[in-house]
Design brief:
Elements (H helix, E strand, L loop, with lengths): L1 H14 L1 H4 L1 H7 L4 H21 L3 H25 L16 H7 L1 H16 L6 H12 L7
């Protein structure tokens, strides 16, 4: 589920660059939006696909946590504070503060916690990580040596 959302968001950054990619990054105040938009989209596509496959799960979760940290800092912290900072823009909302930020950040927080869970726990038994680990363990198992 987590991988699917990241994969979808990454693809959309290329399909709709003005609304979700470089154009959005420019409105927010992200430096070098024409570079960062495609870069973040690529990271979300590659790492999202890795999470779906259950391959290099913990490693793939790390850059996604980084993108979520930047997303929360750049788009949700100004809502919490009620003003932009460090060149980051504050979008117009009916209200600002803690509850408004929590409402706006609900998806970002769920994706962050999902990626954090995968970083800590790793992939499950229906994953390429599990299959590779199982085969590697069987290859080097010394208990069956007569």
């Amino acid at each position: 589920m987590v991988g699917g959302v990241f994969l979808s968001e990454g693809i959309q950054k290329f399909l709709y660059p003005d609304a979700l990619g470089a154009g959005r990054f420019a409105k927010i105040g992200i430096p070098a939006p024409e570079i960062m938009g495609p870069f973040v989209g690529t990271v979300e596509i590659v790492c999202g696909a890795l999470l779906i496959a259950g391959l290099l799960t913990r490693l793939a979760a790390l850059p996604l946590l980084g993108t979520m940290f930047v997303a929360l800092l750049s788009t949700k912290a100004p809502i919490l504070l009620g003003y932009g900072f460090w060149g980051l823009a504050l979008r117009e909302l009916p209200r600002y503060g803690f509850w408004s930020m929590m409402h706006e950040a609900r998806t970002d927080l769920c994706m962050t916690l999902g990626a954090l869970f995968l970083l800590i726990v790793g992939a499950g038994s229906i994953s390429l990580d599990w299959l590779i680990c199982r085969r590697t363990k069987a290859r080097y198992d010394t208990t069956n040596l007569g």
